[in-house]
Amino acid sequence: MSKTEDLEFPFCDDANKYEKLAKIGQGTFGEVFKARDRKTKQIVAMKKVLMENEKEGFPITALREIKILQLLKNDNVVNLVEICRTRATPYNRFKSTFYLIFEFCEHDLAGLLSNANVKFSLGEIKKVMQQLINGLYFIHSNKILHRDMKAANILITKSGVLKLADFGLARAFSISSKGAGRYTNRVVTLWYRPPELLLGDRNYGPPIDMWGAGCIMAEMWTRTPIMQGKTEQHQLQLISQLCGSITVEVWPGVEKLEFFGTMELAQGQKRKVKDRLKAYIKDQYALDMLDKLLTLDPSKRIDSDNSLNHDFFWTDPMPCDLSNMLSKHTTSMFEYLAPPRRRGPIAPNPNQRPVQNPDQHFERVF
User: Fold this and answer.
1) What's phi and psi for 83, nearest 5 deg?
2) How confident is the model at residue 2 (pLDDT cuts 50, 70, 90)?
3) Cis-peptide, bond into residue 354, ω within 30° of zero
4) Residue 98 backbone phi and psi in degrees, to 5
5) Of 71, 49, 53, nearest to 62 (Cα)?
6) 209 Cβ contact partners less than 8 Å away, ≥ 6 residues apart
7) What interhelical angle do 207-222 and 284-293 show, nearest 10?
8) CATH hierarchy code of domain 107-337
9) In what order do the strands lie in the sheet with 162-164?
């Protein structure tokens, strides 16, 4: 089998057509840069494809992401413009670097929420959530699961258009074949991971993304992730404290999940989603929708279609344009560029948000 550097890529432009301007992201997936097309002056985001672990060939995760993004063309999904590569030369040990080139979005939601000067009105929060769920409706209708919903993966342009981004963990799903052990449950950042994944479900579907949407929705008011577990066990404990004990009564069939018998599950916890969040969220429709998104049993969790029809979006104040509010902020805001937060248990302070790193030891916030 020939190595990647031996191959010709006639449809892959040279990455040097773009001039890197600043680094705007860093993760397990690699680095993301803000860049400018030298000829057209168009601003783009360049996502480096990590090739270090590849003996030969192209990383399967990147191939999956490319394939999925070529399928998903929608206003609320980030647009993949092209794929570029650097030429193999003696200077890079004859190893090409590949980049995914995306349309540039000025902010991510984690960056905006970490800035106390960015204030969302209720109508603006509705617009964010409406676009987010519209994006999920579109990808789920196309039989794609995102599997990494979190505030840092929600991009927003300066004109107020929201884009679901980072499809590195996304995959196609099928409803029909009910085979056991189909997908990995080692997906979704811990703080946004739904209870069915924590309990070892391998036969999941769109409800896993809806749970993440619920966590993000609450964050629009709390300004910080609402359940900051240190371990999977701790995350389940925080979920039980908020959403009530995980039992066969509230979730028929949960006992069949792989880790149901091995995880310690808190007993006698009452459901407190509305009670615990009403200090932050005054809108009754918002609390009701959040309650439906953070439903323990995935089969009873509200889906994207019913979410879009929820009264939250159809009562005053109606969802309103974000561009006016965003025009007051001329600097890009990304989680990667946000100032690091102090460690340790943090007091309930809606204006303070820790960096979203589940390895840091934060207690829950509210």
Assistant:
1) -120, 130
2) very low
3) no
4) -105, 145
5) 49
6) 136, 139, 140, 145, 146, 147, 149
7) 140
8) 1.10.510.10
9) 107-108, 154-156, 162-164
pLDDT one-digit tens code per residue, 206-239: 999 999 999 999 999 999 999 999 999 999 999 9
Domain with CATH 1.10.510.10 in the chain: 107-337
Cα 304 from chain centroid?
15
- At 193, the amino acid letter reads R
148: annotated active-site residue: yes
How far from each other are the two terminal CA atoms of the chain, in whole angstroms? Answer: 55
CA–CA gap between residue 78 and residue 197 (Å, rounded): 26
Indicate where the chain has its CATH 3.30.200.20 domain(s): 4-103
Please tell me which residue in 13, 75, 148, 297 is annotated as part of the active site: 148
Between the CA atoms of 17, 57, 189 and 126, what dihedral angle is there, to the nearest 10 degrees? Answer: 40
Q: Span 4-103: which CATH code?
A: 3.30.200.20
Residue closest to 69 by CA, chosen among 128, 134, 139, 133:
139
pLDDT tens per residue across span 306-347: 999 999 999 999 999 999 999 999 888 888 777 764 333 333
* Verdict on whether the full-model pTM lies above 0.90: no
Say which amino acid occupies 326: L
Tally of residues, the chain = 366
Which amino acid, residue 126?
K
Residues 6+ apart with CB under 8 A from 270: 244
Neighbouring CB atoms inside 10 A of 330's CB total: 8
